[in-house]
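Example 5.3 — C-C motif chemokine
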Amino acid sequence: SSSGFSALINLLVILSTRSGLLVLGPGSAKVNACCQRHSIGRLPARAIRSYAVQNSTDICRINAVIFYTHRGKMFCADPNQKWVQLYLTVLKKLEKMDHDQPVILGH
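Solution (predicted structure tokens):
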């Protein structure tokens, strides 16, 4: 729903200004980071520090969205899940605020 989407945008903006949200676009995954399977459950938006999109290859055999948490953990999300698509929509909007480099907020 649009009210849920608005609430998520507000939450991400608030969290980004308080804790510093680093938004990385596709292709910015760490070289050695590879999801072999999807993590179970849903990651709270407040836990996300950055993200990267993983495409299926010989080495990384699944498509995934890798969310990196403030605690340094890697969460391998299924890109087909609605909550993941919603988070990506919001994160990409934040990323578009700066066209030349990843967006770093709250520093």
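Remark. The chain has one domain: 2-104.
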